[in-house]
Amino acid sequence: MEIKNLTTNQLNRLKLYELPKQITSIECQLYLYKHLDKTMLLKKYYRNDDSKYMGNKFLTISLLNHYKDEISIPQLILPEQLVSIDKVISGFIMPFIPNNTNLSLILYDKNISINEKIKHLRSCEQIIQSVHHVKAI
Fold first, then answer.
1. DSSP category for residue 16
2. What ranges in the chain are assigned the alpha helix state H?
3. pLDDT 10s digits, 96-118
4. What is the DSSP letter of 94?
């Protein structure tokens, strides 16, 4: 996996990706990053100084990337690059999904029918079962 090296100054010039106020990112800070005329999502983890935590993230993502053809889960969006900030591995760059909707916003929206919510949850169940199958590979 390629490494994109940034400085803190370069990171600070990126636009923050604002989550809806009902959604909290407890794991990382999100930025919009332009790469080859594409908008990408840069995830800078809060615990980037914890080598065990970052090592587990990197191992999981490396394995998923390595087996992505065998896994064949189109809904699974994988990072494409590691991010180093001031020479410290701090996160990943991955495709940005425009017009995305967080599942919890759907589940807590009183204007969405229970049948529609169940449909979304069943879709999530299928993805989770596919990922669980990957663990067996």
1. E
2. 8-12, 51-66, 68-71, 103-108, 114-136
3. 998 888 888 899 899 999 999 99
4. E
